[in-house]
């Protein structure tokens, strides 16, 4: 009798492991399924713009203390504003010789103005070039 009970317990555990393995096999196929109706991301224009050596990019930012401090203060001001979207929080802030370039998408004209105003407050209104683009939610 004891041997039959042990065999039933073993079979029960094996069945549970089998079910778990089956369920585990289903997870990757459902987790990686993507919505095929969404348009493919196309950053071709942005990439071409950033290849232009005349256009400031983050890797060209100088390592001098004043430029790093300007960029840090602008970034801090933007990130502390919780009314801005994550897009606005992630704009590129490039400081070169006291001049600031803002790049990237924001969700609205209001966000664009807010980010530009924060940069102008730190660097000065005549020292900010905005290349921000409004990309509303689709």
What would you say this structure looks like, in words?
This protein has helices at 2-31, 44-51, 65-80, 86-89, 109-123; strands at residues 92-96, 99-106, 128-134. The relative contact order is 0.10. Helix 3 (65-80) runs antiparallel to helix 5 (109-123). The chain starts with a helix and ends with a strand. It has 138 residues and is an alpha+beta fold. The chain has a domain at 56-134: 2-Layer Sandwich (Histidine-containing Protein, Chain: A). The protein has a 3-stranded mixed beta sheet with strand order 1-2-3. The chain is elongated.
Number of helices: 5
Provide the helix percentage: 40-55%
Can you tell me the CATH class of the domain at 56-134? Alpha Beta
Main sheet properties: 3 strands, mixed
Percentage of residues in strands: 5-15%
Order of strands in the sheet with the most strands?
1-2-3
The overall pLDDT average reads: 79
- Poorly predicted runs are none
Structural class: alpha+beta
Which oligomeric form is depicted?
A: single chain
End-to-end separation: 67 Å
